[in-house]
Amino acid sequence: MKTVQLNNAEFLPYVCTLVQEGHQVAIRAKGNSMRPFLESNRDTAVLSRATAYRQGDVVLAEIEPGHYVLHRIDQIRDAHGQRIKAACNDPEAQVTLRGDGNPRGTESCRLQDLRATCSQFVRKGKTWNTRSHLWKVYSYLWPLLLPVRRYLLALYRLLWLHQLPQRWT
User: Fold this and answer.
1) Where are the beta strands (DSSP E) in 49-155?
2) Angle (deg, nearest 10), helices 133-144 and 146-159
3) For residue 47, is pLDDT > 90?
4) Is 29 exposed, middle or buried (0-12, 13-18, 19+ CB in 10 A)?
5) I need a labelling partner for 88 at 20 to 30 A (CA). Which of 5, 8, 76, 113 fits?
6) Exposed / middle / buried, residue 122 (Cβ in 10 Å: 0-12, 13-18, 19+)
């Protein structure tokens, strides 16, 4: 089998087209923004079309033309700035995104810039459905740990990935 690597600006618009046509598309995770659950070049996200989005969903978003991120919806606000906790399908609603591995940084876009939702993840060869009870518990608890997430991620890097900080080497 021949492997071809494309940059995201070339590849992801095609993925978005397939998803909008109703196909499920699996993409390999790149980067560390969804750590500790998704590891770069190891795990896969299965993308599907969504009719509505809610806080906690992991989505593929085009935050600016040609720049895509796979992050969790941190919050959704309507045109009046009111926070929406239920499922939302208003294309003008403002969405704040944060990667699970990002203790500080966020991105913003409109709901209409969300291209797909993750329906499944393949992690270490095991498939996780985002509708499962265990996934919902993880999706609820991990954002609550934001104040200590920085320390939890540091422990994860040290203990499980055996990565020492630059200042220690």
Assistant:
1) 58-64, 67-77, 83-84, 94-98, 107-110, 114-123, 126-129
2) 110
3) yes
4) buried
5) 8
6) middle
Distance CA 72, CA 27 (A): 16
The CA angle 142-93-53, to the nearest 5 degrees, is: 50
Q: Which residues contact 49 (CB under 8 A, 6 or more apart)?
A: 19, 20, 22, 116, 117
The pTM of this model reads 0.84
Give pLDDT, residue 120. Answer: 94
Mean pLDDT calculated for residue range 105-129:
92
65 by Cβ neighbours in 10 Å (0-12 / 13-18 / 19+) ranks as: exposed
- Backbone torsions φ then ψ of 70, nearest 5 degrees: -110, 100
Task: List pLDDT tens digits, range 59-76.
Answer: 999 999 989 999 999 999
72: CB partners within 8 A, 6+ apart: 34, 56, 57, 58, 59, 97, 98, 99, 100, 139, 143
CA torsion angle for 74, 152, 123, 115 (degrees, to 10)? 20
Closest C-alpha to 111, from 69, 62, 47, 66: 62
